[in-house]
Specification:
single chain, 222 residues, alpha+beta, Cyclophilin, 8-stranded antiparallel β-barrel, 7 helices, 8 strands, Cyclophilin-like_dom_sf, rotamase, EC 5.2.1.8
Length: 222
């Protein structure tokens, strides 16, 4: 049964990759990471692509790295919140959440950061890659009990084999996943940091939108 679940999960992932329309490349000083943006979260996909084209993620940094949890890039919470405090006339700008069933915090997913707003709306300028940990059945049972939710058999198997951060499910928008370069994402998550989780040496990145022609090539190899 377990083998069947893993096979079905692989097949579903392959089908998902082949059907997606947008891919981007994170060019970092640790190597490149190719990311598939989910069509299932079209508003975040389009918001992110617009931000990339506007240069928001040019010479950006992974500025908060928590080992075996997430690698966060873009603007820090304090930067965003302090700017809003200094300029109340600009208002508080958040992007409506797109938290969808079946889109979960497995290792390698790309999420949008946010503050503690009750709508779970995202920042426009902060993202994170999930690294997380391999989970046990007992740990997943505890998350289900606390969050009053139920993991599907496929989700449970992925968390037990690939890993991730299941306690974030339902609270943050996930809008993409790594399809190449997970070793680079792991290397970023392993860098030395200070007590505030800031890398001791800057981890710089640029995001480039992959052309439709090259995206088609990626889909054909999956």
């Amino acid at each position: 049964m377990k083998i069947l679940i893993v096979v079905l999960s692989f097949v579903l992932t392959t089908i998902t990759v082949k059907s997606q329309s947008a891919f981007v490349r994170f060019e970092t000083n640790k190597g490149n990471i190719t990311v598939m943006l989910y069509d299932k979260t079209p508003k975040h996909r389009d918001m992110f692509l617009k931000s990339v084209k506007q240069g928001l993620y040019k010479n950006a940094e992974f500025n908060r790295v928590i080992k075996a949890f997430v690698s966060q890039g873009g603007e820090l919470d304090d930067t965003i919140l302090n700017r809003e405090k200094r300029h109340p006339e600009l208002g508080t700008k958040r992007f409506p959440a797109e938290i969808k069933p079946g889109v979960f915090h497995k290792k390698g997913t790309l999420g949008a950061g946010r503050d503690d707003n009750p709508e779970k709306a995202s920042y426009f300028s902060q993202l994170y890659f999930v690294v997380g940990k391999v989970q046990t059945d007992a740990q997943l049972d505890a998350v289900e009990l606390k969050k009053k939710k139920k993991f599907s058999a496929a989700e449970r198997e992925i968390y037990k084999t690939i890993g991730g951060t299941p306690h974030l499910d339902g609270d943050y928008t996930i809008f993409g996943e790594i399809v190449a370069g997970m070793d680079v994402a792991d290397a970023i998550n392993a860098v030395a940091t200070n007590k505030d989780d800031v890398p001791l040496s800057p981890v710089v990145f640029n995001v480039v939108v992959i052309s439709k022609k090259d995206a088609l090539k990626i889909r054909k190899t999956m």
